[in-house]
Design brief:
With 93 residues, this protein is an alpha+beta fold. The chain has 3 helices and 6 strands, in the order E-E-E-E-E-H-H-H-E. Strands 1-2 form a two-stranded antiparallel sheet. A two-stranded antiparallel sheet has the order 3-4. It has a two-stranded antiparallel ribbon with strand order 5-6. This is Family 562 protein.
Length: 93
């Protein structure tokens, strides 16, 4: 059994989802339904600054494109994606 603790944004109660996937729609014990997104998940990302993106090594460019297409950020790429978002090269909503 997988246990992922989440906190309801409406009533503040913390509970275990009991799911393998952390992302998705969950309902708290008090009946409030909300969406939880794993920090390793990216939704609706795009490359905004192609000039600066082109300065990255080709292997890194390919890795970023794979992340955007798959929607999942591997542990070893989280720092890179965070920096690209902070710099405005990649934008995720």
């Amino acid at each position: 059994m997988y246990v992922n603790r989440v906190k309801c944004p409406v009533c503040g109660v913390e509970f275990d989802t009991g799911r393998k996937e952390f992302s998705g729609v969950v309902t708290c014990p008090n009946g409030h339904t909300f969406t939880v997104i794993d920090s390793n998940t990216v939704i609706d990302c795009e490359i905004r600054d192609w000039d600066r993106f082109a300065k990255l090594p080709p292997s890194m460019q390919n890795a970023v494109i794979e992340i955007i297409q798959s929607g999942k950020i591997p542990e070893d790429m989280q720092t890179l994606m965070r920096r690209l978002r902070e710099a405005g090269i990649v934008v995720c909503t």
